[in-house]
Design brief:
Strand order of the largest sheet: 6-7-8-3-9-10
Strand content: 25-35%
Number of strands: 10
Structural class: alpha/beta
């Protein structure tokens, strides 16, 4: 996907309008409107079942939706066009709760896999890139290691490097620290913070309130499938407008 001359700072790299998603009779997203600008860091907060993860999965095409529109970098999501969806997923990196590394591949090969398969990057070039990305997440010395020999925090940092290998426009993070032991959370959040500082567009579902407050440009509070409140960290944490948000923060 090329940049369609969208250097206009107000251009929404992710543009969601009137998004509805059902699982059977259960409407999980009840008309979401959300526009996210390039280089913006947006944290999504809310209780379990408020639709946060489902929203992320719609943005990268893992879930289909019934109503509304969703464009990424000016391209409308075409749910029934497999080629378009593959292209979308190259453009939208996603990191999950569980690290999902391939156990039979070394760390370096995990990071090299998509660029060599999808972008036909020559091996030497892919390896150089993988080493650069592992250095970015502080794991350059683990190139030849096996995932099983890494801590959870290290595995999650490899997963971030693997996601960055496709050079995505947008990075989605879905509760990426919730499966980690508390002492490992910081090393993963530090990597996300450095990516934010480098100007990556990041949409993150998280329970880490201090991190959300520190790194977000905007915070979205979801409640029962809707965007219930939205604002700067200052507004959301210091001046919540609704009882639901006040309860959530308490």
């Amino acid at each position: 996907m090329t940049d369609h001359g969208n250097d206009n700072p107000s251009f929404a790299v992710v543009d969601i309008r009137g998004l509805h998603k059902r699982f059977g009779d259960n409407e999980v997203l009840k008309g979401i409107d959300l526009q996210i600008k390039r280089q913006e860091v947006v944290c999504i907060l809310g209780k379990s079942g408020s639709g946060k993860s489902t929203l992320l999965r719609c943005i990268n095409g893992l879930e289909t939706f019934e109503e509304g529109s969703l464009t990424v970098d000016g391209q409308a999501i075409q749910q029934h066009d497999p080629a378009a969806m593959r292209e979308l997923r190259q453009n939208v990196g996603m990191i999950f709760q569980s690290f999902n590394l391939f156990p039979h591949l070394t760390v370096g090969k995990n990071v090299m896999l998509a660029p060599t398969l999808v972008k036909n990057l020559p091996r030497e070039q892919a390896e150089r890139m993988a080493r650069v990305l592992l250095k970015r997440v502080g794991l350059e010395e683990k190139f030849a290691a096996w995932p099983a020999n890494l801590s959870g925090g290290q595995q999650q940092r490899v997963a971030i490097a693997r996601s960055l290998a496709m050079n995505p426009e947008v990075l989605l993070c879905d509760e990426i620290t919730s499966a980690l032991d508390p002492e490992l959370v910081g090393e993963v959040l530090q990597v996300i913070e450095s990516l934010a500082a480098e100007g990556m567009t990041i949409i993150m579902v998280t329970h880490e309130m201090n991190f959300a407050r520190k790194v977000s440009d905007r915070i979205v509070f979801m409640h029962q499938g809707r965007v219930h409140e939205m604002g700067t960290p200052e507004e959301i944490f210091n001046h919540p407008q609704t009882d639901e948000l006040k309860q959530f923060l308490a």
